[in-house]
TrEMBL record:
The keyword Transmembrane helix does not apply. One of its GO terms (biological process) is peptide catabolic process. Its cofactor is Zn(2+). This is Insulin-degrading enzyme. Residues 452-737 form the Peptidase M16 middle/third domain. Belongs to the peptidase M16 family.
Length: 1105
């Protein structure tokens, strides 16, 4: 692995290695299959990878990586198209994203709009897609025996999609809803602002998500040029219009499904664009299955040879610098939604994938993003100015990249932004003037090789999606698995060339904060309304940044002592069937020690979980806050020491979890015990400084305040969970205590927590039982705790809803600018340890998930966020639906209950054979094999921490699922889920937006206005008028339009005065009654009082497996 690739690294104009025909073997066509070519060289793979790989090219130039994995329970496939939103037409921002959405809505072979997703989900799988700047990626997983059928349906996306007219309007709404979901999200807002700070003619400046306005504005102008004066099309935007309600749709949920004339024109443009860009030579496919490579080859050649090669060639590289002179050497001040402060310095730079042999950007990211002694991070953190720093490549497209150094500032840091910038710029100058030691390269090379050598399996769909993106990279085909990870050559000149380009004059600085920014001439970014202004970096700062006079406190990282050297794996016993549970090595008053020696993955890694239980951790909101501050101060103090360990493949975490403090360490077992001992020593003997307490308190306050500005569905889900916890404190309750916490309080609390506890330890991986006991002894000796009493060994419990209840709790969305509301609708089912009932819930959830999504999101278009699933609480189980929408929660609740009526009919009509197919597929899914050591450790720990020790739960679930009949599901549904049940237990959480959507002008109002216009002698082209009216535009836009259009008309005042009257007389269907709740709902007025009247679930006890 350490040697250089045998292949030439010379690249062509697309940044690819030259094509060599001698590397390929041609397979001629047969009576059954078209021809194809096979890449003859072996694909380099990780040492522990037992899968077989084959690279082929179809006659249409579509390249495919095939993966034979005989042990996988799931098959998967992903197709990546090297076309993303940078390739949108200039007048149709978001078209690539819209294409992704509409691709799922049926193909010529399978025209039913949810045929593909229905097949996948009913066969134990899932599917998704995403559109990025330079590519669109589609992927799925499915039960192994159904790969062939899934590929047949999947291939149609790329050779015969319908782009159904009936779905056009709804998918425009879906894209629009997705964009609205992101409008108050700073990540999306700042990303788009970064894109707008580039040459307007450069593709990077485009708006990638799209919305209904961006996707229809050009079409509306073309469709109705006679009716609309210049600029009027923009005034009739429909991006502000809520999604149409079901009452406005026909029986199929389509309504004016093609979106009217504008929608039809957008679809026409989409088809035209797709026929240009979705070409086989721009696609890369990865397929993973249990079938042999020959069988996989036959499947793929049969299904995907029909994809057209349109002769457009590979996507050209975008080599032009996206930033012009006016975007360099400037500081941009920008306001955020969330309360945080950050300073980012970035440079545009060359596209990095062609530099895969040397990876100069990775070396610079290592030097600039280091957190150990002497680093920029350590220097600025010790000054009290930052709490976080990262450095490396971010964003870009095929042909250009960006290198960014990002810092999160403290309050004090906001007052020292000039000093922070100078520290970063001067460290760059220091690196330019300093020799770069070769051990930096050797360490990075060693770490990368070890990471690849022992790379574990991941979920098949994520793996194929990851690889299909990589196949489009400029890498030799035999290195597609490792090219982005391995470092081969040390090329100091390449590092220095990049380093020398990082000058003050070429940088763009962005200072982000909710408040406290300097005042200037604020302007708004077009798509998200982000407020910002900019100015040149002061000449005085530029001059100081180039001087190393009085430079001190920062230096190049020292050699990393944590790099592992011993990779031996103890493989004394190879079992035909790996053990499904850990062993309990020791139980005392003080501790419980669990252990599992790895017996299936055979990698030199381990995970050590240490759980300190003490009820004082979470006894009150104050205690909970003190526990959190304690662990944050421990992490803060350990940063410099543990960073080298993290680079070398070892990491730790420490968190508060209810009444416990949990320390997790994992990585190469060679030096893992050293890390564990040091972390625990710091936990036991931490020295707390007041300046760090101030910084940590500030971070926690920001986090809590920002929590209430997050997405509404996050809030409704959180509060649903909070209502059902026996002991739990809201962020606001903890925040109320923050001002009363002192350094002494934290020290005293930490001593109390550590003085008495019950220590539960799980040691898992490449560690034998003797070493595990030594580690456990070391843990107990360092912490020096005394045992807590048996009565204090409390496991969390959930609260049970009473029978025949229908509760709702209502609140407003705290973010006044958030357009969306949310509903979390929860029904309690029963006891977690009731295995037959639990199995029935699991199968029911599998059966209802796709129909719920298809009805509530795809057909009714309630909102972008629609999810359903099981909730396993501390003792009880239930089922929930969550919807985020511009509609009111009370309306959403009624739509959920209407869907439940519909699903009862679906369930009754379901053929027995279909039920049995879904049941058997899900039973297999429930006992899927573990993919890696981390999954196994996490599963073990979940059962230990819960108190049930139910390690064979999944096997038990599968046994019960196989025994279920359709009548069992119907009885379950009618007893626990459907609103008609006399014993159903239901709780819903409503968060209502404070931002009211603009009043809409209904279709019936438009008809009434049309009669007024005729009476007053205003000439109107009625067909065009009705097509525009079908979108039900905002009332304000209608008034604005006719104000301009009737400027010289004698009846102007009369008509304008009638428009609001007509709107009130003809409201939009389904809007006026949204505020009413269904009958029988009981409102909750006080959370504490409500919870006090609920009973708690039974305390957990170990399950005898």
């Amino acid at each position: 692995m350490a040697g250089l690739p045998s292949r030439s690294s010379q690249q062509n104009a697309l940044g690819e290695p030259p094509y060599d025909s001698t590397d390929w073997q041609t397979v001629p066509p047969s009576t059954d299959l078209p021809g194809y070519s096979v890449f003859k060289n072996n694909i380099k793979k990780p040492e522990v990878d037992d899968r077989d790989y084959r690279y082929i090219k179809l006659e249409n130039d579509l390249e495919v990586l095939l993966i034979h994995d005989p042990s996988s329970d799931k098959s998967a496939a992903s197709l990546d198209v090297e076309i993303g939103h940078l390739h949108d037409p200039n007048d149709l921002p978001g078209l690539a994203h819209f294409c992704e959405h509409l691709s799922f809505m049926g193909t010529e072979q399978f025209p039913k709009e949810n045929a593909y997703s229905e097949f996948i989900t009913s066969n134990g799988g899932s599917t998704n897609a995403f559109t990025s700047a330079h590519n669109t990626n589609y992927y799925f997983n499915v039960s192994s025996k159904n790969l062939s059928g899934a590929l047949t349906r999947f291939a149609g996306f790329f050779h015969s999609p319908l782009f159904s007219e009936s779905c056009t309007s709804r998918e425009l709404n879906a894209v629009d809803s997705e964009n609205k979901k992101n409008r108050q999200n700073d990540i999306w807002r700042l990303h788009q602002l970064n894109k707008s700070l580039s040459k307007p003619e450069h593709p990077w400046a485009k708006f990638g998500t799209g919305n209904r306005e961006s996707l229809t504005a050009a079409s509306r102008k073309k469709a109705h040029p006679e009716l609309l004066p210049p600029g009027a099309a923009e005034s009739l935007t429909i991006s502000q219009v809520p999604s149409p309600s079901p009452s406005e749709m026909d029986n199929n949920g389509d309504g004016d499904g093609d979106g009217g004339a504008a929608g039809r024109e957008t679809r026409r443009r989409l088809v035209e664009w797709w026929e240009t860009h979705y070409s086989a030579e721009r696609m890369k496919l990865v397929v993973l299955g249990t079938e042999s490579l020959d069988d996989l080859t036959s499947m793929v050649v049969k299904e995907f040879s029909a994809v057209k090669n349109r002769g457009v060639g590979r996507t050209p590289l975008m080599l032009d610098d996206p930033r012009g002179a006016e975007h360099k050497g400037i500081i941009v001040y920008t306001k955020t939604v969330m309360d945080f402060r950050a300073l980012e310095i970035s440079w545009s730079c060359e596209w990095q994938p062609p530099n895969y042999l040397t990876k100069p950007a990775s070396i610079l990211g290592h030097l600039l993003g280091h957190e150990g002694p002497g680093s920029i991070h350590a220097y600025l953190k010790n000054k009290g100015w930052i709490s976080y720093l990262s450095a490396g490549i971010h964003g870009g497209g095929r042909g250009f990249s960006f290198f960014k150094i990002t810092t999160v500032l403290t309050k004090d840091g906001m007052d020292h932004t000039t000093e922070i910038m100078l520290a970063i710029y001067r460290y760059l100058e220091y690196l330019k003037a300093s020799p770069l030691p070769t051990y930096i390269h050797e360490e990075n090379k060693s770490i990368a090789e070890s990471r690849f050598r022992f790379a574990e399996k991941r979920s098949p769909d994520k793996y194929v999606s990851f690889l299909s993106e990589r196949l489009s990279g400029p890498y030799p085909r035999d290195l597609v698995l490792c090219a982005e990870q391995i470092v081969w050559e040390w090329d100091e000149s390449a590092v220095r060339n990049m380093l020398n380009s990082f000058t003050v004059e070429k940088s763009l600085v962005m200072l982000m904060a909710k408040d406290g920014l300097p005042e200037g001439a604020w302007i708004k970014e077009k798509w998200y309304g982000v407020e910002y202004w900019s100015k040149p970096i002061p000449a005085s700062l530029v001059e100081k940044a180039k001087s190393l006079e009085d430079f001190h406190g920062m230096y190049i990282p020292k050699p990393n002592e944590f790099i592992p050297k011993n990779f031996d794996v103890e493989k004394s016993t190879v079992l035909t069937q790996p053990s499904k549970k850990p062993s309990k090595l020791r139980t005392t008053e003080l501790s419980t020690v669990w252990h599992k020696k790895d017996d299936q993955f055979w990698i030199p890694r381990a995970r050590i979980i240490i759980h300190l239980l003490n009820p004082i951790c979470n006894a009150t909101p104050r205690h909970s806050l003190l526990s959190r501050m304690f662990v944050e101060l421990v992490k803060d103090a350990l940063t410099e020491f543990t960073y080298d360990a993290e680079l070398a493949g070892m990491k730790y975490s420490i968190v508060c979890d209810g009444a416990s403090v949990v320390v997790v360490s994992e990585g190469y077992n060679d030096k893992l015990s050293v890390l564990v001992e040091h972390v625990l020593q710091r936990v036991k003997n931490i020295t707390i400084a007041q300046d760090r307490v101030t910084v940590i308190a500030e971070q926690i306050q920001q986090e809590i305040e920002n929590f209430y500005l997050t997405q509404p569905y996050v809030l409704s889900n959180y509060y649903a969970d909070h209502f059902l916890q026996e002991v739990g404190w809201t962020p606001r309750q903890k925040l109320a205590e923050l001002q009363y916490v002192s350094l002494g309080d934290i020290q005293h609390h930490a001593q109390e927590v550590l003085a008495r506890s019950h220590i539960t330890t799980l040691i898992h991986g490449n560690v034998n039982s003797e070493e595990a006991l030594r580690i456990a002894d070391c843990v107990e000796n360092i912490l020096g705790s005394r045992p807590i009493t048996a009565a204090e060994k409390l496991f969390p419990r959930s609260l049970n809803l009473p029978a025949a209840c229908n509760y709702v709790w209502e609140d407003v969305v705290p973010n006044k600018d958030e357009l969306n509301s949310s509903l979390t609708y929860y029904v309690e089912v029963g006891d977690l340890i009731d295995a037959p009932l639990r199995a029935t819930l699991l199968l029911f959830n599998q059966m209802i998930r796709e129909p719920a999504f298809n009805q509530l999101r795809t057909k009714e278009q309630l909102g972008y966020v629609v999810s359903s699933g099981c909730w396993f609480l501390h003792g009880s189980i239930g089922w929930h639906v969550t919807v985020q929408s511009e509609r009111k929660p009370s309306y959403l609740e009624r739509r959920v209950e209407s869907f439940l009526d519909l699903f009862r009919e679906t369930l009754t009509a379901m053929p027995e054979a279909e039920f049995e197919r879904q049941r058997d597929a899900y039973a297999l899914k429930r006992v899927e094999r573990l993919k890696n050591m981390g999954e196994e450790a996490s599963r073990f720990w979940a059962h230990i921490e819960s108190g049930y020790e139910d390690f064979l739960r999944r096997e038990m679930d599968a046994e019960h699922i196989r025994l279920l009949a359709k009548e069992d599901i119907k009885l379950f549904f009618n007893t626990y889920i459907h609103p008609d049940s006399p014993t159903r237990r239901k709780l819903s959480i409503h968060f209502t937006s404070q931002s009211q959507p603009p009043a809409k002008f209904s279709v019936s109002a438009s008809e009434a206005l049309l009669q007024v216009l005729k009476q007053e002698g205003v000439p109107v082209k009625e067909d065009q008028y009705r097509q525009l009216s079908a979108a039900e535009p905002p009332l304000d836009s209608v008034i604005e339009f006719w104000t301009k259009h009737l400027e010289n008309h004698a009846s102007r005042s009369t008509i304008l005065s009638r428009i609001p009257e007509i709107s009130a007389q003809h409201p939009v269907a389904g809007i006026t009654d949204e505020s009413s709740l269904p009958e029988g709902v009981v409102r909750i007025n006080d959370i504490a009082t409500f919870k006090a009247h609920l009973t708690a679930s039974k305390a957990p006890s170990p399950i005898i497996s």
